[in-house]
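Thread: HAMP domain-containing protein, structure

OP (GT): Posting the sequence first so everyone is looking at the same thing. Length is 155 residues per the record. Can we get the structure tokens written out before standup tomorrow? I want them in the notebook alongside the other entries.
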Amino acid sequence: MIATIMFVVMTILTKAIRRADRAEEVVALQLELAASQRQRAEEQRQLEEGFHQIAEVHARVANGDMRARVSLEQGHVLWSVAVPLNNLLNRMHRTQNDTDILLQTQQVAQYVASYIHRARVTGEQNPLSATGTALDPVIVEINKGLPSAYSNRGN
């Protein structure tokens, strides 16, 4: 009889221990699930924030602001998109600057050609002013070739 009672008690205790183990497993899984949901919510927030920043930069660049850049922290979900985009924007900005310099140099070249033509036709030779372009050495040489009354001006 004692053996039967002990068997019943042991069976009940074993079942209780199994239930407790399962309850601990359930709690652990619930905690893991909650942590996973928090991480997913954070990643979703980062994605939304990153998409917003990238869209804002695209709009600024489309409106002519070639200095706009995406400023995401390293480790951000969209970091691997932001870095190449910023590199592209840097190259576009340098290209725009080079284009502006080329346009200014072309305009100065036209002005110098017009000056030389006018000087040849009219004989009028006033010194040229420096322009801040790559043609300034040419302008200096042209001014050196002017009559001495003008040679000290415009250099």
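GT: Both are above now. Quick notes for whoever picks this up: The chain is about 75% helix and 0% strand. The helical segments are 2-62, 79-122, 136-144.
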